[in-house]
Amino acid sequence: MKHINNQIIIGIDHGYGNIKTANHVFRTGLLTYDSEPTFTKDMLVYNGRYYLFGEGHKEFFAEKTSDEDYYIMTLAAIAKELEPEGITDAEIVIAAGLPLTWMSGQKEAFAAYLSRNEEVGFQYNRKDYHIRIEGVKIYPQGYAAIAEIKSTLKGLSVIADIGNGTMNTLYMVNGSPQSANKFTDKFGTYQCTLAIREEFQQKTNRELNDLIIEEVLRTGTADIPASDLRIIRKVAAEYVQGIFRRLREHGYDENTMKLIVTGGGGCLIRNFAKTKPERIRFVDDICAAAKGYEYMAELQLKGE
To answer: In the chain, how many domains are there?
Structure first.
């Protein structure tokens, strides 16, 4: 988070798999209770209901405002950033993002959704919080993750932001984004997980836990039988081929363009792609987008 005047800017990357702030990551799985649950770690209390975070992930919806879940997770994200500094009462500017091609159609609605209450009180991890939402800034995903390094980009670059639900592609010339060349595909890492799960079931008549799949996608291996690992790696490699097929459909040429990969799906390209490594740059910080949102909001509030 960033302090500016009497306000605190908190960047939040509302992914389908994880919520990311500049300093924290938690899964989008959300369990709701009408009374206090047995286990209360990572618990938020709001409007008389109890919420637990960290199991599973959010189902893909093109409209993030379709239910209250992302609002609840926004409150938790704010609390996680404030907690280490002992702040429980604050004026907050939320800096968030949307997929590139959804910006024009959903920006106003998402900002209104996140600022639905100018003042809000809630409890997180047994501490009472009172915050005032002083503003909401919405920025394009993908671009935010490289905003602070864009001045270092020379020639033609392609940004591929691969999240759990979507892949966003943006062309840049000498660090300047090209508005006419931006794309959003529903081709995130969860589509790869679903394909692996189905292939594994067909080949073995067994079910495979998503945690094992995620470990293989993240690291390239896992402590499982070699035959099981081959199935996962084969499907993952096919998925990565699909990524590059979509990039080429959008005009990408690995011989003349630099590819900059951001988002959690970058590990897939690192582990399973057969391409020219010298033409690819990875932004490995999973919190890069949230930090980028804060960076751009700070510049905007300073009038730069």
So the answer is: 2
**Which tokens is 23 given?**
């300093």
Asked whether 56 and 37 are in contact (CB, 8 A), the reply is: no
105/160 same-domain check: no
CB within 8 Å of 144: residues ≥ 6 apart: 97, 288, 289, 292, 293, 295, 296
Of 108, 140, 172, the last residue of a domain is 140
Question: 25 Cβ partners below 8 Å, 6+ apart?
Answer: 18, 19, 286, 287
Task: Evaluate if residue 16 carries a pLDDT over 90.
Answer: no
Whole-number average pLDDT of the chain: 92
Domain boundaries, position 172: 152-284
Q: Is residue 240 domain-shared with residue 193, that is, in the same domain?
A: yes
Other CB atoms within a 10 A radius of the CB of residue 213 amount to 22
**CATH number for the domain harbouring residue 118:** 3.30.420.40
Q: Where are the beta strands (DSSP E) in 214-298?
A: 258-262, 280-282
| 105 band by pLDDT with thresholds 50, 70 and 90 | confident
- Looking at residue 160, its pLDDT comes to 95
C-alpha distances out from residue 172 to 14, 73, 179, 257, Å: 24, 32, 9, 10
The domain boundary residue, chosen from 79, 108, 140: 140
Is the pTM above the cut of 0.85? yes
**Is 230 a domain residue?**
yes
Same domain, 108 and 30: yes
Do 107 and 83 share a domain, yes or no? yes
Interval 133-158: pLDDT, tens:
999 999 998 899 999 889 899 999 99
In DSSP notation, 200-217 reads: HHHHHS----HHHHHHHH
Nearest to 214 by CA among 17, 52, 70, 23: 17
pLDDT category of residue 56 using cuts at 50, 70 and 90: low
The whole-number pLDDT of residue 274 equals: 83
The count of C-alpha atoms lying within 13 angstroms of the C-alpha of 258, restricted to the half-sphere facing its C-beta, is 15
